[in-house]
Design brief:
single chain, mainly alpha, two-stranded parallel sheet
Length: 868
Amino acid sequence: MHPIIIFSKMDFSQSNLFGYIEDLQELTIIERPVRRSLKTPEEIERLTVDEELSDIERAVYLLSSGQDIQGTSVVANLPVLMRQNPAETLRRVLPKIREVLHVAGVEMQLTAAVSFLTVLQEELVSIHTYSHSFLHIILQHLEHRDAGVSNAWLETLLAVIEALPKETVRHEILNPLVSKAQLSQTLQSRLVSCKIMGKLANKFEAHIIKRDILPLVKSLCQDAEFEVRSCMCRQLEHIAQAIGAELTKTVVLPELVELARDEGSSVRLAAFETLVNLLDMFDADDRSQTVLPLVKSFCEKSFKADETILVSLSFHLGKLCNGLYGIFTPEQHLRFFEFYKKLSTLGLQQENGHNDNQLQVQTLEQEKKYILIRKNCAYNFPAMIVFVDPKNFHLELYSIFFCLCHDPEVPVRHTMALSFYEVAKLLNSGVYTIHKELVTLLQDESLEVLDALVGHLPEILELMTNGGENCGSENKLLSIPDLITALTTAEQRAATSLKWRTHEKLLQKYACLPHIISSDQIYYRFLHRMLTIILTNNVLPVQKAAARTLCVYLRYNRKQEQRHEVIQKLIEQLGQGKSYWNRLRFLDTCEFIMELFSKSFFCKYFFLPVLELTHDPVANVRMKLCYLLPKVKSTLRIPTDKHLLQQLELCIRKLLCQEKDKDVLTIVKRTVLELDRMEISVDAFQKRFYENDLLDQEKERQEHLLEMEQLEKEKQQNEGRSTNINNKIFEKKRRDSKTSSVLAKSITLSVPGSSSATPAGKEDKKSKLVRSQSFSTQALHPKYNTLDKCPNKSSATGYMSSVSGMGKNCMLPFTDDSFRTHSGGNSGNAAFPSSSSRNLYNSADQKSSGNKEIQSRKMNIKSRKSNS
């Protein structure tokens, strides 16, 4: 059959027809390079290399007579050749590379710089050999005509300087540098000299720097080209840190002051940034008399200059304000703060009365710089809190904080999300004032903002709910509902996006919620959502993150009914699920449970469901189970869990005998050997397991405390109900006693001297008591029947029935020890009373209650006869 081609309605007018022809011509143009890229037989013959050649011989051949792309491949493969045969590579290959590099193109030059750096970093040769064989090649190509190639070789040389000995650096690099830094040399040579001197400053002592390097530094700071002055100015920071505070004050600071007044804007900018970075090295006099006037003039002229200066100033403003904090007058303090406020909203004000096209183009060009300025203001916001004082945050900085968190540009909000934790820490007791902004950032439309905020989300939430003395309980209670809504919204938005790493990170951080909100809020808003993610999400890391967070929620859940419900869902929907993928996730969840819970908890609820997967029809599930069996065995304790150990051994025997998949059988045999080498811990503490036993005991204690807390709450509720019932009964009895006393008086008045009534009343009371006892014995039987349905740890059948029937009738306080009297000698047999024994008990109780009723009736008849 031929495929049916459905043609859409096409317009064959003249204009559209020419459009179709142009599209066809474009398709032919696209195909032409493909045809040209095919190699002719002659080219293939020329590119073919003899397979019998060794790696060294092939490299030499390709460098000698091959094409450029083949030579570049050999240069990129140089570290591999050095690992295999360093002596032959240095003797035969490296000289060829040196010859080729003189005429090589840009690509081979860049590849060679990277390969030489790799040889140094991986220490494939000694430093002495490297300086003898590689250093001269690096120095020869530092002044390459291509700026990118020159910078690549310079980066390699700067890395080499750190590893070379001082004498080699002095003779091979420092001495030739004197001639390279002269004005007679090229611009590229002088720029390279500036960067090398900044690196050499960390290599030598202060007196050598003062004698050999500082004269060159002064010369380059006064160079005729502004590029050289700017480059040397940026290296003054490294030189100042090497020579110390005294020489910096006498030598470096005067040069910086002169460069700060330079005619070139890039030179002034470099001087300003260097001054800010060196503030810690200046004393108070230098800061107040020299640095502060320069900074003030720089800030005043910044708005009239290029926006590039504003970008740098906004980035360094926080460090500058805190560095000069001690010498500011109140007026200067206010001026710098107002300057920050102006920068934080720069570009958001609408210009009125200007609609020229030239202005619009200029605004579009400036928009990116304005965004970068506001981003830098967001970066410096924590520093400005320190500058203003956290106590004045609400009055001075909250409006700026609000604007930055609601900025229309994503990079600004992203930076605010990154610095949100620092802001919360600085505010401390006033952290509740920024709660609305946290909710706003959690619900931000950009997932980049959410990803930045999630990094410190547990710490932020803890500060929000518990931070500060002034954050009263009312504020906490009001803030939590908004937070819960924002958190659920954030998770749903991350789940619907394609950025699964953000979703995974968010789920991992949500594990902190048990310390933030109540157990019921987690149960109803988050726990079931985690289970849904495990069942429906298609990304494995996201499923594992949800599984671990769910286990944490289960760990801190305070209600036994909820815990039982979650455990039952995990076993039924994951462990017994129809999809093998869900059963694999059940094993992952069990691994997290073994990590977070005590050994007894895992053995009580999950040990037998895990072993049931040995009969799984999918080989991958059985294979994963085999990998997990050593951890499963480590949860057992002897002699308490001896029956579970027997179940484990029985399952392993079945796997060894019945497994048909070769891969699974191989893993089973390997696992058996590992299990044989394992030692099982006993109930008593042992030295080798002491720390693990202590940790497990602490987990078990916390679980027990949660159960006891729940039992105590239920007990208090029951006591409250019983007291209410007793009060009602007491009121009713009091009313009945009043009416009965009135009736008794009337009876005594009407029938005087009737003494035979009292023994009859006693007999009636006795008969009522006997009947109430018979009814109470019959009412107790259902309770005993529910006790029989409670889980028994020694039986697989009993365990599964407890899991499936877990509900209101089966409570945790009935521990396994209370049922050991029912178990027989064999652990494999069921430990429940038979149905015939239950029928005997019930029939016996019915007979006893019937006899008591007959006796009570006889007594009533006798009392009536005596009365008559």
